[in-house]
Write a structure and sequence with these properties.
The two termini are 31 Å apart. With 90 residues, the chain is mainly α.
């Protein structure tokens, strides 16, 4: 029941896509990790940042915002799956 409430609350916010995802965040730089995405995703992400974000947000910040939102929405499910597959040693 909690899961459905959490998803409904997230969908009912009056924030626009841009205000949710195309904003600067607290990251000071790209960090020291590389990730790989499908070329077609990279093209779409880059176009979104350039056009909707008016080139004012770096791609790494946009991806960080997407991941933050994903973890907020699915944290309970992730935790349940993790605990189910990772039994305590003692």
């Amino acid at each position: 029941m909690e899961k459905n409430h959490k998803i409904t609350r997230a969908k009912n916010t009056n924030r626009t896509y841009s205000s949710k995802f195309l904003k600067r965040n607290t990251l000071k730089g790209r960090g020291d990790k590389s990730i790989y995405v499908r070329p077609e995703y990279h093209e779409k992400l880059t176009r979104i940042v350039k056009i909707i974000g008016a080139g004012e947000i770096p791609l790494y910040a946009y991806l960080d915002n997407i991941l933050k939102h994903h973890f907020e929405l699915h944290s309970q499910e992730i935790l349940e799956e993790y605990n189910k597959n990772n039994k305590p040693i003692l």
